[in-house]
TrEMBL record, chain A:
One of its GO terms (molecular function) is quinone binding. The keyword tRNA-binding does not apply. This is NADH-quinone oxidoreductase subunit N. It comes from Xylanimonas oleitrophica. Residues 502-526 are annotated as: Disordered. Keywords: Cell membrane, Membrane, NAD, Oxidoreductase, Quinone, Translocase, Transmembrane, Transmembrane helix, Transport. Signal peptide: none annotated. NDH-1 shuttles electrons from NADH, via FMN and iron-sulfur (Fe-S) centers, to quinones in the respiratory chain. The immediate electron acceptor for the enzyme in this species is believed to be a menaquinone. Couples the redox reaction to proton translocation (for every two electrons transferred, four hydrogen ions are translocated across the cytoplasmic membrane), and thus conserves the redox energy in a proton gradient.
Automatic annotation (TrEMBL), chain B:
Belongs to the complex I subunit 4 family. This is NADH-quinone oxidoreductase subunit M. InterPro entries: NADH_Q_OxRdtase_chainM/4 (IPR010227), NADH_UbQ_OxRdtase (IPR003918), ND/Mrp_TM (IPR001750). NCBIfam families: NDH_I_M, PRK05846.1-4. It is found in: Endomembrane system; Membrane. GO terms for molecular function: NADH dehydrogenase (ubiquinone) activity; NADH dehydrogenase activity; ubiquinone binding.
From TrEMBL, chain C:
It comes from Xylanimonas oleitrophica. The chain crosses the membrane at residues 6-29, 62-80, 86-110. It is a multi-pass membrane protein. Gene3D superfamilies: NADH:ubiquinone/plastoquinone oxidoreductase, chain 3. This is NADH-quinone oxidoreductase subunit A. Its EC number is 7.1.1.-. GO terms for cellular component: NADH dehydrogenase complex; plasma membrane. The lineage of its organism: Bacteria, Bacillati, Actinomycetota, Actinomycetes, Micrococcales. It is found in: Cell membrane; Membrane.
Automatic annotation (TrEMBL), chain E:
NDH-1 shuttles electrons from NADH, via FMN and iron-sulfur (Fe-S) centers, to quinones in the respiratory chain. The immediate electron acceptor for the enzyme in this species is believed to be ubiquinone. Couples the redox reaction to proton translocation (for every two electrons transferred, four hydrogen ions are translocated across the cytoplasmic membrane), and thus conserves the redox energy in a proton gradient. This subunit may bind ubiquinone. GO terms for biological process: aerobic respiration. The keyword NAD applies. Signal peptide: none annotated. This is NADH-quinone oxidoreductase subunit H. The chain crosses the membrane at residues 17-38, 84-106, 126-146, 167-188, 200-219, 248-271, 291-312, 324-349, 355-378. Residues 383-457 are annotated as: Disordered. GO terms for cellular component: plasma membrane. The gene is nuoH. PANTHER family: NADH DEHYDROGENASE SUBUNIT 1, NADH-UBIQUINONE OXIDOREDUCTASE CHAIN 1. It comes from the Bacteria. GO terms for molecular function: NADH dehydrogenase activity; oxidoreductase activity, acting on NAD(P)H, quinone or similar compound as acceptor; quinone binding. It is found in: Cell membrane; Membrane. NDH-1 is composed of 14 different subunits. Subunits NuoA, H, J, K, L, M, N constitute the membrane sector of the complex.
Amino acid sequence: MIDFVAPTIDWAAVSPVLVVLAAGVLGVLLEALVPARARRSVQLVLTLGALAGALVAVALLWGRVQEAALSVVGGSYLLTPFGLGVQAVVVVCALLGVLVVADRPGGQDAFAPTAAAVPGSTYEEQARRAGLEQTEVYPLVLFATGGMMLFPATDDLVMLFIALEVLSLPLYVLCATARRRRLLSQEAAAKYFLLGSFASALLIFGVALLYGFAGSVRLGAIAEALAGQGASPLAGMDVLALAGVLLVVAGLLFKVGAAPFHAWTPDVYTGAPTPVTGFMAACTKAAAVGALVRFLFTLAEGMDAGTRHGVEVVLWTVALLTMVVGTVVGVVQTDIKRVLAYSSIAHAGFVLVALVGFSETGAAAVLFYLLAYGLATVGAFAVVTVVRERLTTPVPDAEHGAASAASDTLLGEATHLAQWAGVGRKAPWLTAAFALFLLSMAGIPLTAGFIAKFGAFSAAVDAGAWPLAVAGVVASAVAVFFYVRVIVLMVLTPPADELVPDGGAPDGGAPEAAGTDAGPDAGAAAHAVGGGAPTGTLTAAPAATRTVVTVVTTPGPAALVVALCAAGVLLLGLLPASVLDLAGQAAKFVP
Amino acid sequence: MTFPWLTALIVWPLLAALATALTGVGRGRPAATGTGAGRFGGTAARVVALAGALVEVLLLVGAFTAFDTTRAGEHQLAETHDWIPAIGASYAVGVDGVGLLLVALSVGLVPLVILAAWREQGGDDSRLRRYLAVVLVLEAFMVAVFAARDVFLFYVLFEAMLIPAYFLIGGFGQGAQRRYAAVKFLLYSLAGGLIMLVAVIALYLQVPAAERGPRTFLTENLTGLELGTTEGRLMFAAFFLAFAIKAPLVPVHSWLPDVAENATPGTSTLLVCVLDKVGTFGMLTLCLPLFPEASRWAAPFVIVLAVVSILYGAILAIGQSDLLRLVGYTSVSHFGFIVLGIFTFTSLGTSGSSLMMLNHGISTGALFLVAGFVIARHPARSQRIADYGGLRTVAPVLGGTFLVAALSAAALPGLATFVSEVMVFLGAFGRAPVAALVAVPAVVLAAVYVLLTYQRIFTGTVPAHLGGDAAREATDDGTPPLEDTVSRTREDAPVRDLDARERTVAGVLVGALLVLGLVPGLALRYVDAPGQVAVELVGESDPPPVLGAQPVDARPTEGSLS
Amino acid sequence: MTNPYVPVLVLMAVAAVLALGGVAASAVIGPKRYNRAKLEAYECGIQPTPQATGGGRLPVKYYLVAMTFIVFDIEVVFLYPWAVSFAWLAGFGLVAMLVFLALITVPFVYEWRRGGFDWV
Amino acid sequence: MPITNYLVLAGILFAIGATTVMLRRNAIVVFMGVELMLNATNLAFVTFARIHGDLTGQVLAFFVMVVAAAEVVVGLAIIVTIFRTRRSASVDDVNLLKG
Amino acid sequence: MIPGVAADFSQDTFVTYLVKAVLIIVFLLTSVLVAIWFERRVVARMQVRPGPNVHGPFGLLQSLADAMKLLLKEDVNVTAADRIVYLLAPMVSVFCSLLVFAVVPFGPEVTIPFTDFTTPAQLTDFPVAVLYVLACASLGVYGIVLGGWSSGSTYPLLGSVRSTAQVISYELAMGLSLVSVFILAGSMSTSTIVEGQQSIWFFLPLLPAFVVYVISMIGETNRLPFDLPEAEGELVSGYMTEYSSMKFAWFFLAEYINMLNVSAIATTLFLGGWRAPWPLSAVGDGVLNTGWWPILWFLAKVWLLMFVFVWVRGTLLRLRYDQFMVFGWKVLIPVALAWVVVLAVVQWFRLDAGVSRTVLVAVILGVGLAAVALVSLWPDRRRSPEHDDAGPGSEAGTAPSSAPGTVDAFAGGYPVPPLPGQSLPPSPRAGRRPVEHVPAGGAGPDTPHDDVEEGAR
């Protein structure tokens, strides 16, 4: 038997991922050992520290990677400049995302006190009143981030698969943990899970076919086999290879959220707790696109003209379809989170446009695009978390016959577009930031989104895919419509929500969800009000109860995130030079 | 290093806008409208904005002094800094004569617009404050876009301008359909702009990869590229489409009347008189030099379009019942003239067009603003021409200024527009006599719509809701101005003549029309050389003189026409 | 060399014959004197419910056991190959497996502390 | 028996699994479809390993099993949570989110 | 030769397989008959009563009579049952239990008398034989679960659920304890493992693992004190409540075969398999380890373990369900896990670091002694007098009878109930595991484990 040779591991190269995952593990341990009172702060420090550490590690590795890609354990972990670039984007977005997660607008975070409790049960109510918090969220976010960082940094398809699962599984769980609209949230998690696991099954079957074709799961080896240099007995079966490539691409496109694999996106984005949605939208997309680039660009080296053409046709179709679906369906949405979800689909299409040429220009453009999109998205969802419904109950004072000060209870997010009317008057700065994010997503010049789209379309034109670029341009024009519609609503339309009476759910789309949502909280309101008041007051009160839209102005981490993202979006729009340089450096994707 | 006049001109309005917005800081005393007017009250915003705009005018004067008219064909006051080296874009500003005139137009009109808007926005101070701030932001963009010497920068500003413009139309308009108009405007412009984006990218990629540097996007670097015929024509088409939408040429003009109808007159002034000049300015400074071959190839089509625009705009203007919409259609007609002049490829036509851009701005601005004054006098602010009559008798100054402004739209000799229109005609006769001949009736049509409108509004009997015959007495007894909400619904509201503020606005514009009409040389010094440069760049030479016109360099001849 | 699994198949066949045969035999041989009470479910003499308690579904608590089991079963799955080639993998394998075990221990501790192993 | 038969079997199983996912509405059944797909993958891996005469495929099958187990844990948790709330595991009943 | 397997099956033919298979079945069936008799007799002895003694000598034929009776019983199929599964379940159970012996080595190579045909006393063996055993055992649970579930009745359902939880809980501990055997033997083939126990039987160096295995094997087979799935006092008859006739017999049979199975595996993996015990193994230069002798040793060991089963049953009380699960998860698994780590480290020292066995044993003994000393000397805070003074109502441990109002129930040598006005002292076990009071709203099987008090801590 051959002697076993222990591999030498370049720990420095793995450090960004390692720091994050180790912190995740440590977080679980802390969750078990630290008393509940201190958990949140400890977890927060750990999480932010780990992500900051990962960022530092990425920065330290940057120079080293430029010289040569770092390969660990024979390519199971392969750090290319591009991979490192994606890791940087992921970490930055995750850092911002975690801050939003940590925010407690109105004193409560966005997560269920105990996600396992049956919605509406006594037990849940007890937990809520005890002020419990599900601090497991932080380790979960860390695990997901770790998976995302691993995703684009491997040469090994099975590692790719595992990274996919490591990033997906925590996200499935996170989706189910919303504090309000829990049924919606659980449903979103179930859908995400079922479709997600379906996609990963497709991916792994594709991997199996590629393994059969090349006799290896290393991308490099597969590319060689495609080029006809492999020694595999099945190397002649190009059908196997093409089917494998397409299945893997399908799995990856699912995570990217490209049509026709986009069906989960709107539902999941709507149902998941908003901070998680922001995190997920920004980071997952970045990681998945990174992996897609890694996979396709490497294999494209070895493909013959026919296979390559086949893959390109698929990419073209998907990109076109994605842009069309994202923009056209997005136009008719009435829920802000769904609007953002469809926008994310459309963006997936734009990113795909950038990479059809399999060129370094494309890779650089993709990186910049991911960063620009990530900042805008995290920021936008952070804004969504603070625009809330408020239940106002004027408490009539029976003795004096006059209504005293109204008592307020903060409800869930006001996600229906109609409720966003006139938000601009309530919170001008927040609205300005949100408008900036939307304009950036629309690709209006002087924002990051424009430079990003410019890069993406230039890459496409450069690769000769100018019809795709034109289509992208047209899609952007349509997309502008729905972004601008939201801005109009916020800035130009007077608020109309004062007229919405309580009782009927203000959110017409989801009566049941709103019921379970408002139910316990309304009860809580009654409790809060009824501290020492006679019951008569309580029974009289609901008649005057109204739901209004409010913007939580308490300065929390989310406000910081919004400010940072807005600054980032503007800065990337006005002075993108240095970041573009970095993206250019990171565009080398093949060792 | 000389003083960066252009950068100052760009940055100052932004600062002024910020200052204007900041006057709203704090709750202020609760105003009647319920919205806080800010700690400094409502007037502060007006004063700050006006002062900012006036300082900007001073800066403009400085820029003029620094501009060397003997080299008007070259870009002067130039500044170039790296901006995004990775994609070859730089911050490069500089103006030739035409650019400078258009900058002047923007800077000059803004204080007038601010002054004209003094009592607008329904007495809502915070709304007015925002309006003024946005106007100032738009001013910065307009100056920057006329000064941009980098295609990428130009494009960025070209698109970025849409956002403030959109808010001006949709947010502060007065028409019932203002949001529809705003969206229409935005989508038209964006569609054109985005198609242009593809061409911008494609153009950039025509530069051989080895030669792409941090300043590739500079206009001079992109000029004279070896383009394939098809590529060149496609890119030309994309650029031209964007500019044609902006400077409304006929098939894609339909947003303009809607906007004119629904926006405030001030907004329309900025939009139609300045912003849309970006379109023709772009044709002149980008389409021609970048794609000479394609320009020559497309010239016949463009000329046809231009002529159609001229006639179509004029004819439709006659049929309009809405005053502002009518002004909008006259502009369509005028833009036709400008485009016609540019695509004659004669230095006479080109410089005539350049001049006409300036003159049209002043003339149409005057028309819009004065029309705004007219409308402000209607108790229900009706824009229907049929709702007016006999105003000449009750408001003679108003009638007079309107008449001058209207006649300038019809290019009456002695007014500024006449010079430029004649130059365009002369240029067109040299290159495309048929087109010129076909366009000539437009002059007659213009006279028709101008006079017809004047007649319907200012002559005849005063309708009852404008105060009827008793109006003259009522005007003098010091009743509060019509703008006040209290008197708005009164059936017998009297009509008073222009007050000092309005006289200032109208006076400046009418004065400018007269001065430029009588001494066109003042402006011609700036447009002649760029016109020649443009013709050279497009690879044509001036045709032999036709119809006894003097050679191009005989500038005194042009002057003598006054 | 024959396939070492063939004998297993043979044994399976014999076992299957036995298992089936026994039940079949009793069905044939045994008396058949049914009545309704005999065919009802047994509830210690009281009237039986039409269905088992909880709709015939397993209580949720057991899913927890099942999930925990899966986690640890996976651990064992990895331990076996490592154990078999322990000598070959030497120090590297040991360290790797210790890390792995430590990682598995973390959720174990977590579940323990959170009462996952407490049956009320 | 040629070894490619195993591949065909794997393909058929995979197709059955995929069809189940797309056609059935019960969450548990859909989930089982996914599991079937994963197991088909395992079969393919092992068969390919046999064809190539190396162990990689078998090791990969291991990994897939582990991941499948992890998916089971998370998936069952989510489905059970929903079931406790709604007393049903049909995807059709899960309809708060349109489209 | 099969790679990785010590035994040599190269001469075997299909006929050999068939004969061996039938022999295994016959062996198992007779063994079960004997085992039932054996159990009843031994338990009876322990309980000072005769046990079966009517049919045949010493009542040996009692089991046979029972079997015949079952065969002739009426075959009742319950109406509420899910028919196919209901029928299938007992067959699955017995089928799976019959398969395990395929890889158990009864002995080394034997020569068939009157021929020169040599074959291992084992049906077959392969490199992952133990995995196969575990697989069969796990599949066997399906019989129980499906049987309980398909009966459509409450008691069987509860029984089957318990059975699942029990089996999977204890299977982990069992699997972990096997790891140490594989580390020592470097193989999962049964014959190779027996081969590896030439010098020392594994139960000695792997004593903790062996103990864990024995405990969990009792749990695996649902035997007292772990017979919760069929606890008569609680669940009538557990998962087989609704079964009668041969279907019931198959469950019964499967349970006893499983006992034999786990005993045989324990023998093979820990007790040296067919090897003769120490003094005998030295006789005649190991002659007792050849020929047919090993089968004797093997059976002896198996039956020794069977005796342990019976002994435990006769001695211990059935655990409460929660105690049972807590024991499995909180004691057995951590211990097994810790043992694997310790063994792996020690083994690494031995193999790679070159530390000699003597030194190792000395160090381990030293560490062990130190640990024991530490544990015994560690101040027990809970029972310490200071603590007792501080805590109200915790004077139980010091002097129960001294407290006023409490009565020493055992004062007369046998327990008596307290009279009115008297109260019993708190149970000495009460301090060990404080009973957590859960509010009524939070109790029940479907409340999350992270209860409110815990979380608010």
